[in-house]
Write a structure and sequence with these properties.
The protein is of the alpha/beta class. 43% of the residues lie in helices and 17% in strands. The chain has two domains: 185 residues, Rossmann fold (3-Layer(aba) Sandwich), CATH 3.40.50.2300; 145 residues, Rossmann fold.
């Protein structure tokens, strides 16, 4: 072979080899897992609802990887235990972004953790769908990439207050925990109570001290409000129910945040659970007309052996919205994902999803549930009702 031809062939071979070497990482990149990070609470006061969130995240990832994947790539969930602690949650989101270099983030459980975690994600340009947070202060900071799924906490008890006002009740009492979510729920309940013509005769805060909580509850029992609202996380809610049951006392009517939505609430709380109300963003009831809701109930039950709660449904909804956004824009570009979500007005397994220009959820409203004869029933709004609300006649309440 002439020397010139041999040199030409050799150069071409070298160029082809170099090009091939360069193409290998690109090909691998197309099939490399999309890393998605979040924290979950495996201990502490958020553990019960956070387990429902974690299971929904895992179910979604399992289904994505079993089907068309995301942009043709598998997803890898990286979940760390935040122990229900805001400081630890912040450290872990920094770790997810700086060390793990995740492509996407999901939200932790609850308003306090989401509020702090979103400071990190916003500063680093990541979209966060706050699927289990409802404190309105989250959307009062001018952030551009955090979007709510729940109605804000100040709207949680509209249904309960509306129902009791229509029944002729005149007074309400409110006990709430000293944190962002429960304060917002209590403040909103106080405002709406006045709008419904109800007098707030007892309004007290406590700091995770069960002894003080029992004393406040005892004082409220003496005042005898027609309706009693407890804005608390599950450990405190169960503590009050245990106290009432032990002393064989109860309020004429009472409503709690969070605890009544769990399928085992009646079994765990005992007879004191009868008649208890609670706000819920969604229920695992086949009569709800939302697209995909029945399939989600079935899939979640098969995956976990338990019924989902609204925490599960909202976490799964967040994943679905993220999936649709990425599929629509064809990339993981955070700015484009944010623009897509901002513009949505759509139906999900939970009902309507629509956010305002701050990212606050404005399309969704809570349901009101009540435990009746060992069953959880939807009693508000009327068009979704599975049973009529049940009440005792209002007592003569002291307005002191």
């Amino acid at each position: 072979m002439p020397k010139q031809i041999w040199c030409t062939f050799l150069c071409a071979a070298i160029i082809w080899s170099a090009a091939a070497v360069k193409l290998i990482p690109q090909a691998e990149a197309k099939t490399a897992a999309i890393k998605i990070g979040a924290t979950v609470s495996l201990s502490g006061k958020y553990v019960e609802p956070s387990l429902k969130v974690q299971n929904a995240y895992r179910l979604w990832a399992k289904q994505i990887n079993a089907n068309d994947r995301l942009l043709g790539r598998p997803v890898e969930l990286i979940l760390y235990d935040d122990k229900s602690q805001a400081r630890r949650c912040v450290q872990l989101y920094k770790k997810l972004i700086a060390r793990d270099k995740v492509d996407l983030v999901l939200a932790p459980y609850g308003t306090p953790l989401t509020y702090k975690a979103s400071e990190i994600t916003e500063a680093n340009g990541y979209v966060m769908i706050a699927c289990t947070a409802s404190g309105p202060q989250i959307w009062e900071r001018g952030f551009k990439k955090i979007f709510g799924v729940y109605a804000t906490a100040d709207r949680y008890f509209i249904g309960y207050l509306d129902v009791i006002a229509r029944r002729g009740f005149k007074t309400v009492g409110i006990i709430f925990g000293n944190n962002a979510f429960t304060r917002s729920a209590a403040e909103g309940a106080r405002r709406w109570a006045k709008l419904f013509g109800l007098e707030v005769v007892f309004y007290k805060c406590f700091d995770d001290n069960f002894t003080k909580l029992e004393k406040l509850t005892s004082r409220a029992l003496e005042i005898k409000p027609d309706g009693m609202l407890f804005c608390l996380y599950p450990p405190s809610g169960y503590a009050i129910l245990k106290y009432l049951s032990k002393n064989k006392r109860r309020f004429n009517s009472m409503a709690f945040t969070i605890v009544p939505v769990f399928p085992n609430f009646y079994t765990r709380a005992g007879e004191i659970a009868e008649g208890v109300f609670g706000p819920s963003h969604w229920e695992p009831d086949p009569r709800l007309p939302f697209p995909g809701s029945q399939k989600f109930i079935k899939d979640f039950q098969q995956y976990t052996g338990t019924l989902p709660t609204y925490h599960s449904a909202s976490a799964y909804t967040a994943c679905q919205i993220l999936t649709k956004a990425i599929g629509h824009i064809g990339s993981l570009n955070q700015d484009k994902i944010a623009v897509y979500i901002q513009a949505r007005d759509t139906m999900t397994i939970m009902g309507r999803f629509k956010v305002d220009h701050h990212g606050r959820q404005v399309g969704h409203n809570p349901l009101l549930i009540q435990w009746q004869k060992g069953r959880k029933e939807i009693v508000y709004p009327t068009k979704l009702r599975t049973a009529e609300p049940v009440f005792q006649q209002p007592q003569e309440s002291g307005s002191q």
